[in-house]
Amino acid sequence: MSTITSVCVYCGSSPGRDGSFLEAGRKLGNDLARAGLRLVYGAGATGIMNAVATGCLEEGGAVTGIIPRFLINKEAPGSSLDRLDDLILTDDMHQRKHIMFDRSDAFVALPGGIGTLEEIVEIMTWAQLGRHEKPIVFANFSGFWGPMLSLLSHMKAEGFIHSQERVRPLVIDRAEDIVPALTRTGAYSEGDPAIIGRL
């Protein structure tokens, strides 16, 4: 596995109903900065997206924000984009996702909605097709991704997930365990207490 220098975080532009998700997002941002890892995210200044970016910036971290022009007024109002040291404006969502992929060495899905789900599923699809071998993490805070993980296991059992060795995301339930898992050298251990498991 290549050295990880940047991490793409997919997450909700809303805070959700569980306040601990915001706290966990901010903690992850803190940890990325302290580890010298660049945050790559959707440039939003609301919800969990804002918590992750704020956490990274308050620890002096580097942040790349990538956002389509049509979303700026909705997700990044006012001068919120000025705080980022690297800002990329795109014409559409497809361009945004491709640039996020190109700029990132690993991917983490925090709690979020349909957009977050679509983004992480696409990354897994590309892995299944052999387009990358970058680590993928489901941040399963309070069991948030449990239904999704059950569906993936069902798909696998029914024979619809091929090249299974390529689609083995890490499932981690605590924010503080994500960066250590990503930066650990060598292969991940299935017995690592920080890791719930792999699909």
From TrEMBL:
**E.C. number:** 3.2.2.n1
InterPro entries on file: LOG (IPR005269), LOG_fam (IPR031100)
- Which Gene3D superfamilies does the record cross-reference, listed alphabetically? 3.40.50.450
Q: Which reaction does it catalyse?
A: AMP + H2O = D-ribose 5-phosphate + adenine
Q: Does the keyword Hydrolase apply?
A: yes
Which keywords annotate this record? Cytokinin biosynthesis, Hydrolase
NCBIfam families assigned to the protein according to its UniProt record, in alphabetical order: Rossman fold protein, TIGR00730 family
Similarity comment text for this entry: Belongs to the LOG family.
Q: Protein name, please?
A: Cytokinin riboside 5'-monophosphate phosphoribohydrolase
